[in-house]
């Protein structure tokens, strides 16, 4: 690729040098005085006259400096910038601008044909009202969906309205289509902009409260409280608080915070599973106290209690399993457990503890 570029530059340089050496600039005065005539065969350049010396070109390739696309072709970068500006939205808006609007008579004509199943008439109705969808979709910007997605959903509503529109009702198609377009866009926002999807009727009621909150904010110059919103919409305070709680935003724990963006939201969240150092110290003191209480029991009682309640490194076991381990019957193990618990209860009451503190 680089060698081809150098060869191209060398050929251009060779032709430019040849033209500078063999030709003289044409003066404006001389050009005006001369009459134009067809060139004869002798005045035409032959292939030998313009054929460059390829071998010489290749020898000069190594002497040519390196060039970037921006240096060799200044318009290259400008072209890339223009391509970026012509994004999908602008291209779409440019295309739909060529579809003329329909008159009232044309609407009736094409709508009547569309109801009878004429696909060309249906297509004409849709294409002529695409700009209506864009106009309505712009009202729903900053609601969680990009403009192209809003337009796409609105187009679905437009197609549905073409199927349902009856020109005999006497009103314009745009009036009828607006309802369908808004309906599909609003449903898309309700369904697609929340991490946790809410039922449509819940979202509609929530939007009523949010709309009231925006109106109160403009009127009161402060963020309205749930009580003020409930009073405005005449709803129970509990219902308003419950629905407003569903409007909480979901954020990723990896979201950067601070100016340096070296810390994430996860770094600020406390670990609920980690124990408080004070609690660890308290638990250690309690464990040592329990050990001292168990030492006051008989050998069999210590073995039964430790195995039954998972103390001293043992796993919790059934009466039957404990009996097998210490070579006693299941009933005898139960009796030893009852005797040991009575003794422990008495010891715990003396120090102000309960059996729940032990197990």
UniProtKB/TrEMBL annotation:
One of its GO terms (biological process) is DNA-templated transcription initiation. Its main location: cytoplasm. One of its GO terms (molecular function) is sigma factor activity. Residues 293-346 are annotated as: Sigma-70 factor domain-4. One of its GO terms (cellular component) is cytoplasm. Residues 35-48 have a biased composition (Acidic residues). The keyword Transcription regulation applies. InterPro entries: RNA_pol_sigma-70_dom, RNA_pol_sigma70, RNA_pol_sigma70_r1_2, RNA_pol_sigma70_r2, RNA_pol_sigma70_r3, RNA_pol_sigma70_r4, RNA_pol_sigma_r2, RNA_pol_sigma_r3/r4-like. Interacts with the RNA polymerase core enzyme. This is RNA polymerase sigma factor RpoS. It comes from Legionella pneumophila.
């Amino acid at each position: 690729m680089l060698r081809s570029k150098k060869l191209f530059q060398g050929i251009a340089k060779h032709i430019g040098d040849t033209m500078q050496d063999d030709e003289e600039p044409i003066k404006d005065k001389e050009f005006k005085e001369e009459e134009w005539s067809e060139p004869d065969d002798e005045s035409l350049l032959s292939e030998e006259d313009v054929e460059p010396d390829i071998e010489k070109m290749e020898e000069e390739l190594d002497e040519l400096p390196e060039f970037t696309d921006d240096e060799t072709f200044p318009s290259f970068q400008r072209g890339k910038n223009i391509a970026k500006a012509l994004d999908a939205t602008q291209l779409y808006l440019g295309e739909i601008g060529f579809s003329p609007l329909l008159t009232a008579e044309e609407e009736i004509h094409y709508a009547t044909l569309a109801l009878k199943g004429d696909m060309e008439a249906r297509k004409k109705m849709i294409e002529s009202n695409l700009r209506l969808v864009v106009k309505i979709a712009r009202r729903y910007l900053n609601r969680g969906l990009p403009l192209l997605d809003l337009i796409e959903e609105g187009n679905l509503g437009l197609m549905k309205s073409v199927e349902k529109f009856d020109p005999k009702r006497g009103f314009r198609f745009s009036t009828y289509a607006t309802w369908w377009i808004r309906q599909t866009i609003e449903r898309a926002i309700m369904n697609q902009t929340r991490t946790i999807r809410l039922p449509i009727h819940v979202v509609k009621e929530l939007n009523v409260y949010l709309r009231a909150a925006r109106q109160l904010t403009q009127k009161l110059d402060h963020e309205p409280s749930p009580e003020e919103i409930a009073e405005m919409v005449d709803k129970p305070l509990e219902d308003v608080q419950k629905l407003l709680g569903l409007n909480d935003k979901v954020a990723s724990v990896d979201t950067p915070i601070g100016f340096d963006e070296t810390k994430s939201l996860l770094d600020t969240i406390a670990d609920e599973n980690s124990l408080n150092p004070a609690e660890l110290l308290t638990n250690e003191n309690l464990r040592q106290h329990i050990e001292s209480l168990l030492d006051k029991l008989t050998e069999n009682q210590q073995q039964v209690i430790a195995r039954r309640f998972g103390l001293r490194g043992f796993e919790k076991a059934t009466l039957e399993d404990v009996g097998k381990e210490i070579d006693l019957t299941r009933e005898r193990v139960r009796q030893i457990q009852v005797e040991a618990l009575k003794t422990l209860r008495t010891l715990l009451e003396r120090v102000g503890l309960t059996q729940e503190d032990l197990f």
